[in-house]
Specification:
Helix content: 10-25%
Largest sheet: 10 strands, antiparallel, barrel
Radius of gyration: 27 Å
Number of helices: 2
Order of helices and strands: HEEEHEEEEEEEEE
Strand content: over 45%
Structural class: mainly beta
Length: 247
């Protein structure tokens, strides 16, 4: 009695394909989850430092009461898109304000846009890298600024590379303590810039959360000389409250 060990080519191909595809399907990773977060926040900003335009350098010390009294317009927010451990975040801020110190009035319009790319190593640690774009228009007014009746003014924009991290410490199911920090500039734009933002996060629902903390943002930038000089050595700091929608 003979056994028939022959097999049709079509059946052989089907068997080989099944052998290849089965382990692949078994080991295939689940699809990565996309997340979208939109945050709007308010910053109780205080500004202190020096503003230099041409040959004039003025001390700037604008408190929260001055900003609230002289605020022309302000908007602040963050949009974050995540895919698995990766995320792209864009933070934007516009602030138009003026304040008076020692008889000198500083009028400032500032745009700040900050795109970053981050990777979540664990639920506690997420390093990031990106750039901080600044566009600043400034004007100084007051008696005796210059021996001639000219109001120093100027507009500059620059890019600062930044590196940093997001740190998270869970405090239960709904609360967590978070810290955002970065440093940059490295003489490419600013000589140095840094930011520190510790805050408490309350995830009260799947679709929403609230944040409360305190933010420091420092920039030391200078370019040009003589009448074309522009210098901005400033620390912005203040309490921050925000609301985030999660999609």
């Amino acid at each position: 009695m003979k056994l028939n060990l022959t097999m049709k080519p079509q059946a052989l191909l089907s068997l080989c394909a099944a052998a290849v595809l089965c382990p692949l399907s078994a080991s295939a990773a689940p699809p990565k989850e996309w997340t979208f977060d939109l945050a709007l926040y308010g910053l109780a900003d205080n500004m202190s430092g020096e503003l230099g335009i041409g040959p004039v350098t003025a001390d700037v010390d604008i408190g929260l009461d001055d900003i609230l009294e002289n605020l022309e317009f302000g908007i602040m927010g963050t949009f974050r898109v995540g895919c698995g451990p990766w995320a792209i975040t864009v933070e934007g801020l516009f602030l138009g304000v003026q304040g008076e110190t020692r008889g000198v009035t500083a009028d400032l319009d500032q745009w700040l846009v900050e795109p970053t790319l981050s990777y979540r190593v664990s639920k506690y640690f997420e390093p990031l890298a990106g750039v901080r774009y600044n566009n600043l228009s400034a004007e100084l007014r007051g008696p005796g600024i210059l021996p001639i009746p000219i109001m120093p003014s100027g507009t500059r924009d620059w890019w600062d590379p930044i590196v940093g991290a997001n740190l998270t410490l869970p405090l239960g199911k709904q609360f967590s303590l978070k810290l955002r920090g970065d440093i940059g500039g490295f003489g490419i734009g600013s000589e140095v810039t840094w930011q520190l933002y510790p805050y408490l996060d309350w995830r009260f629902a799947k679709w929403g959360s609230m944040q409360a903390g305190y933010r420091w943002l420092y920039m030391d930038y200078e370019t040009g000389s003589g009448a074309d000089r522009f210098a901005y050595d400033m620390l912005n700091q203040g309490a921050q409250i925000g609301f985030t929608f999660h999609f």
